[in-house]
Design goal:
With about 475 residues, the protein is α+β, with helices and mostly antiparallel strands. The chain is built from 11 helices and 22 strands. It has 2 domains: about 100-185, Pdz3 Domain; about 190-340 and about 360-455, 2-enoyl-CoA Hydratase, Chain A, domain 1 (Alpha-Beta Complex), CATH 3.90.226. Helix 7 (about 245-250) runs parallel beside helix 8 (about 315-325).
């Protein structure tokens, strides 16, 4: 733990605009600098000078330098990033659960902006945007070829202002405009309820500043309604990540005191750390142990954790910790596979560099990078199967992704599976919209939750006959 104490600030594991990441934010930059390659720097200076003097029109010097830094970083891996003043502010806002925008998590697909999910109750949700929608224009600007960071800049703005999207909904084969008024978004990251006497469900949709307190409050509420719980389902499906201390706290709520939750390891000494189920490892800026009020029975209650391909980073840390400590049964489908650590180092008062500095490991020493957590029991998304699971983007699909610890494997059958899934998606597009809408998590039509409850009761579980473990695919350079 001595090395961990050297890390100032906080560590986050999460998603900013769908860019899943694990981050260590430091208050000061490192004092040592690597030797500089003078010949290459002279080349860089020569290019800078030629652009300044010979380009067809004047170019802003500051923009040239910013673009050079961004290009240098973006070629490393999908999660390293240069933050200018605006994007650094937005990055910090993203972990608080409060920001101004329309309320969507986004990623990129085929050069377009893809909606991963609208935040419940947000302007985007009220406007009818759905998971899988592709945004082709923001106002009058086409997003094709635009970086995700630039797209976020255009989507966000001042509260009360409007933004106009042109949306292509692939499963309905139609394009339509949507005008949304921006507002301050306050996300609620924890839900839960008693499903039936003796059995409860609690969902964490993202690990944010208030998640631990909300998690404890919801569990206290559940135990007041039913103090004799026989089983609990922890739902981490489509949880893209968040703050590491929140992930450690949620893990610690179920684990014996002192059990290992996660370790990190990288080239520099400060990236080597062990996080345990101890208050000092999750009490960032908190005056008292937030887990102190939880009933002792929570440490022993039978537990099932639901995950899927959208579970990443912090949610994978929790699932891996509970799996390796044999505290829970993991059910669902293989997770995203985000297992690298990024350190955020300020470059000035308003700018910073987010740089991959380490991998993280589960308590048994497994790296989940580009592989993910493989459930103990594979369960389909619906009673009819998981026909579109193969279309989910995973860490291994990202350009320049870091490899895991083992050799990379190419799955020759994967392309065929994806082709078949796309054909089925096209066929389903002809069905009425009501038939295509997936059941709400926590509802009585939630098939994976139904199977999790069956497992807790000792009843038969409908195990998937189609889902298989995905090996890491060949790295894209």
């Amino acid at each position: 733990m001595s090395q961990k104490s050297k890390i100032a600030g906080w560590i986050a594991v999460g998603a900013l605009a769908g860019a899943l990441t694990t981050v260590s934010l430091q208050t000061v930059a490192r004092g040592t600098l690597a030797p500089l390659p003078l010949e290459q720097l002279q080349q860089l200076a020569a290019v800078f000078s030629l652009i300044k003097t010979d380009y067809v029109e004047p170019v802003d010097e500051k923009k040239l330098i910013t673009d050079a830094i961004s290009g240098m970083v973006s070629g490393l891996d999908p999660h390293s990033q240069y933050f200018d003043k605006k994007s650094f502010k937005e990055f910090r806002e993203g972990t608080t659960g409060r920001f101004v925008g329309v309320g969507i998590e986004i990623t990129q697909e085929d050069g377009l902006v893809k909606v991963v999910s609208p935040i419940e109750g947000s302007p985007a949700d009220k406007a009818g945007l759905k998971s899988g929608d592709l945004i082709t224009k923001v106002d009058d600007t086409a997003v094709k070829g635009m970086s995700l960071n630039d797209a976020v800049k255009r989507i966000r703005g001042e509260p009360g202002t409007q933004v106009r999207f042109t949306v292509w909904r692939r499963d309905e084969d139609r394009t339509f405009p949507v005008t949304i008024t921006r507002e301050e978004i306050r996300t609620q990251s924890v839900k839960g309820k008693v499903m039936e006497p003796g059995y409860a469900w609690i969902r964490v949709s993202q690990f944010q500043d208030r998640t631990v307190e909300d998690f404890v409050a919801k569990l206290d509420e559940i135990y007041k309604k039913d103090p004799n719980l026989k089983g609990l389902v922890l739902d981490l499906r489509n949880d893209p990540g968040g703050l590491l201390d929140a992930a450690v706290a949620v893990s610690a709520a179920f684990l014996p005191e002192g059990a290992t939750v996660v370790t990190t390891n990288g080239q520099i000494e400060e990236s080597k750390a062990i996080y345990k189920a101890l208050p000092e490892d999750y009490m960032r800026r908190r005056g008292a142990d937030p887990l102190a009020s939880l009933p002792a029975a929570l440490k022993k209650v039978p537990l099932v954790v639901l995950v899927n391909g959208g579970s990443a980073s912090a949610s994978e840390i929790v699932a891996g910790a509970l799996q390796d400590n044999k505290r829970a049964v993991i059910m669902g489908s293989q997770t995203f596979g985000k297992g690298s650590v990024q350190t955020v180092r300020p470059l000035g008062p308003d700018t910073a560099l987010k740089l991959t500095t380490a991998r993280y490991y589960t308590p048994s020493g497994r790296t989940i990078q580009a592989k993910g957590i493989v459930p103990d029991i594979m369960v389909d998304d619906t009673a009819e199967g998981s026909p579109f699971a193969v279309l989910r983007m995973r860490e291994a699909d990202l350009e320049h992704h870091l490899s895991g610890s083992g050799p990379e494997v190419t799955d020759p059958a994967l392309a065929k599976e994806r082709e078949d899934a796309l054909k089925k998606l096209e066929a389903d597009a002809r069905k009425p919209a009501a038939e295509r809408r997936p059941p709400e998590y926590g509802s009585d039509k939630d098939f994976p939750l139904e199977q999790a409850l069956a497992k807790l009761k000792g009843q038969p579980v409908k195990v998937s006959t189609t889902l298989v473990e995905r090996k890491e695919e060949s790295k894209t350079e």
